[in-house]
Amino acid sequence: LAKTTQPISMDSYEGQEVNITCSHNNIATNDYITWYQQFPSQGPRFIIQGYKTKVTNEVASLFIPADRKSSTLSLPRVSLSDTAVYYCLVAGATNKLIFGTGTLLAVQP
Amino acid sequence: DAGVTQSPTHLIKTRGQQVTLRCSPKSGHDTVSWYQQALGQGPQFIFQYYEEEERQRGNFPDRFSGHQFPNYSSELNVNALLLGDSALYLCASSPTGFEADTQYFGPGTRLTVL
What we know:
The complex is a heterodimer of chains A (109) and B (114). Chain A has a five-stranded mixed sheet with strand order 1-9-8-3-4, with no helix packed on it. In chain A, strands 2-7-6-5 form a four-stranded antiparallel sheet, with no helix packed on it. Chain A has 109 residues and is mainly beta. In chain A, β3 (32-38) and β4 form a beta hairpin. Chain A is built from no helices and nine strands. Chain B contains no helices and eleven strands. In chain B, the strands form two sheets. In chain B, strands 2, 4, 5, 6, 9, 10 and 11 form a seven-stranded mixed sheet that branches. Chain B has a four-stranded antiparallel sheet with strand order 1-3-8-7, with no helix packed on it. Chain A binds chain B through residues 2, 30, 32, 34, 36, 41-46, 49, 51, 87, 91-102, and chain B through 4, 31, 33, 35, 41-45, 48, 50, 55-56, 58, 88, 90, 92, 96, 98-108, 110.
């Protein structure tokens, strides 16, 4: 049973900022929040990981409120190549990753 | 620095046969996990190996077995193949000793069972 809930799909246009929100009401104290991106017939690619507040790297930002029951992945100025499935997961050290069905992001020109 | 590698890329087998898939973890990683991804679904956890032993296992039958070698590489074996075993098999590696389990995935092996 997936421990997270996220929208099944989202549509966007090139150049826009995209925010994908994930709900994880039962997150444990030692759980981290991790987002992966997956293209068809490829392995998931690690995007970003955080525990609380805000994390930013060269491709995305992750916003986590104080209660940690949700998180938002922000993709700035998306392009067609960002069309993919995005997975939100919560896990602690050495835990198995439980994937849901993810969010299919479709970026249009 | 090579990432996670898997072989073969594609494989076609018939029902009842046995298959072995291979995985080399990312440099510096000692934990290997295997996942099965059916078309249109998220990856499903099969099992995880650490120090050459199975540490965790998902809800998969005993037909699925594995092994980890001293160099941390790993194999996934599936016996008595069924049509439903057709899927993308993913290997992921991670280091131990950290608070967060950041797993890095390989490109996968596409298994087709006819």
